[in-house]
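quick one: S-adenosylmethionine bound model?
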Amino acid sequence: MIVNELITGYLASLAHDLPAELEELKERARKAHVPIIRDDMLELIRFLLLKEKPKTILEIGTAVGFSALYMKSVVPDARITTIEKVGMRLKEARKNLEGSGIELVEGDAEKVLPVLSGAYDMIFLDAAKGQYGRFLPDCKRLLAPGGLLLTDNVLLEGSIAGSRFGVERRDRTIHERMREFLRELTHAEGLVTVILPVGDGAALTYKSHDV
Ligand SMILES: C[S@@+](CC[C@H](N)C(=O)[O-])C[C@H]1O[C@@H](n2cnc3c(N)ncnc32)[C@H](O)[C@@H]1O
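yep, here:
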């Protein structure tokens, strides 16, 4: 947790209710240990969607479809495409997304992204943290000018701020890659980024111009 529990709890008391079917899906996902977005990220996404009213949204990392369905509930007219590669998750996602109008693309984003063409008004990047850097060139290409890229989990529970030697050996590669990704994201020409201590850290980027 990046922000202390007292503040997170207070903010949760101001959060908006989810539609009943999403509340159920959230509970099911949490019980099954499926990693889905945290409640404070939902509020940030809600704000961005209502403010920007994106017509096209690309999500990288469907899991079981919770965040895609949430976005659809906020902006029902948006065309949403979501990518997932893990068979077990896909099985559940197919069921949950049936009839929603959300397009589920099955495959590794590393292979799927290069063959997609844009432009997307918003991209939600919420997949394997160690791969974010590899996805960045395609995200940049696929974003419409003025479009938003929202990247989740960038602060690695706060460990990103410390030395890589302060984290478990198995997490050092992700730590190193995430730092490189954030360095690139915050300094890329044509992108403007702010990093917010929301959820597990959210990088909010907009494409100011094509380069
Ligand atoms: C944090 S979960 C996504 C949660 C979802 N956005 C939500 O909040 O409901 C990350 C998902 O990304 C998927 N994933 C990881 N790397 C991927 C890749 N290279 N291509 C497609 N999916 C990937 C994982 O299998 C996992 O289901």
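The chain has one domain: 5-207.
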